[in-house]
């Protein structure tokens, strides 16, 4: 299994707005080969820190996804978000290979 965390820090007062966007996400990734699960995590001590956690069967499945046209379409839409502060947020991406369960 392969796990990817994309961590963003946004102004706390905008966290509900961003959470709402993820609650209504397109779910295109759900159809990708090897996709297992998606979770949006909110840091309980820093409400403006949000982490997207995705689980994949393999690293190759994940890399195939990020090279796909669907991935590119989704992320192009993010860049066009009307709130420029949110549109310009850069995620810190952490990738993990599961080595024990």
Automatic annotation (TrEMBL):
<dbReference type="GO" id="GO:0004497">
    <property type="term" value="F:monooxygenase activity"/>
</dbReference>
<keyword id="KW-0560">Oxidoreductase</keyword>
<dbReference type="InterPro" id="IPR050404">
    <property type="entry name" value="Heme-degrading_MO"/>
</dbReference>
<feature type="domain" description="ABM">
    <location>
        <begin position="2"/>
        <end position="90"/>
    </location>
</feature>
<dbReference type="InterPro" id="IPR007138">
    <property type="entry name" value="ABM_dom"/>
</dbReference>
<dbReference type="Pfam" id="PF03992">
    <property type="entry name" value="ABM"/>
</dbReference>
<dbReference type="InterPro" id="IPR011008">
    <property type="entry name" value="Dimeric_a/b-barrel"/>
</dbReference>
<keyword id="KW-0503">Monooxygenase</keyword>
<protein>
    <submittedName>
        <fullName>Antibiotic biosynthesis monooxygenase</fullName>
    </submittedName>
</protein>
């Amino acid at each position: 299994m392969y796990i990817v965390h994309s961590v963003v820090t946004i102004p706390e007062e905008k966290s509900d707005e961003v959470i709402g966007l993820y609650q209504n996400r397109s779910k295109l990734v759900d159809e990708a080969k090897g996709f297992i699960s998606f979770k949006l995590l909110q840091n309980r001590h820093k409400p403006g820190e949000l982490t997207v956690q995705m689980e994949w069967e393999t690293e190759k499945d994940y890399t195939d996804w990020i090279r796909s046209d669907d991935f590119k379409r989704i992320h192009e839409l993010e860049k066009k978000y009307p709130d420029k502060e949110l549109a310009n947020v850069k995620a810190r991406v952490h990738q993990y290979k599961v080595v024990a369960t």
